[in-house]
């Protein structure tokens, strides 16, 4: 497993086969059709010491989830081919991927969107724009659950 935090060896941190400062290093799949959003979320995920995998639309996200079996998925909603609600439903209802928690990360901020997303199987919902701290908190909460 590769080290996702560039500084961990340089400062002598306790990186040892999948741990980062005593915490489990998760494999997190980020699904977003915006290259800038994908890069920004990836930067935060890796800064937190996790491994980031990416997919550029919902259909690719579903396939990556089945192939990679990540520890968590951060899913945009508004995407071509298969939107995030549809992809979340597909992932959470498939026996091979149903154990993977999905967090919807989206600009859709209406209560009805939030309710619908949770009904599709999402474990959490965060709206863009968000702070690094907000995303870090959601990842930590979902990983503990």
UniProtKB/TrEMBL annotation:
<dbReference type="Pfam" id="PF00072">
    <property type="entry name" value="Response_reg"/>
</dbReference>
<dbReference type="InterPro" id="IPR011006">
    <property type="entry name" value="CheY-like_superfamily"/>
</dbReference>
<feature type="domain" description="Response regulatory">
    <location>
        <begin position="27"/>
        <end position="143"/>
    </location>
</feature>
<feature type="modified residue" description="4-aspartylphosphate">
    <location>
        <position position="76"/>
    </location>
</feature>
<dbReference type="InterPro" id="IPR001789">
    <property type="entry name" value="Sig_transdc_resp-reg_receiver"/>
</dbReference>
<keyword id="KW-0597">Phosphoprotein</keyword>
<dbReference type="InterPro" id="IPR050595">
    <property type="entry name" value="Bact_response_regulator"/>
</dbReference>
<protein>
    <submittedName>
        <fullName>Twitching motility response regulator PilH</fullName>
    </submittedName>
</protein>
């Amino acid at each position: 497993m590769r080290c996702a935090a560039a500084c961990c060896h340089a400062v002598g941190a306790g990186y040892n086969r999948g741990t980062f400062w005593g915490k489990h290093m998760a494999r997190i799949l980020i699904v977003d059709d915006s290259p800038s959003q994908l890069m920004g979320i990836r930067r935060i995920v890796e800064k937190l010491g996790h491994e980031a995998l990416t997919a550029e639309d919902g259909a690719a996200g579903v396939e990556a989830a089945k192939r990679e079996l990540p520890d968590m998925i951060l899913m945009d909603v508004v995407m071509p081919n298969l939107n995030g609600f549809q992809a979340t439903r597909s992932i959470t209802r498939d026996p091979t991927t149903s154990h993977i928690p999905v967090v919807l990360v989206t600009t859709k901020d209406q209560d009805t969107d939030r309710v619908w997303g949770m009904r599709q199987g999402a474990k959490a919902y965060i709206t863009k724009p968000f702070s690094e701290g907000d995303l870090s908190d959601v990842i930590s909460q979902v990983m503990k659950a």
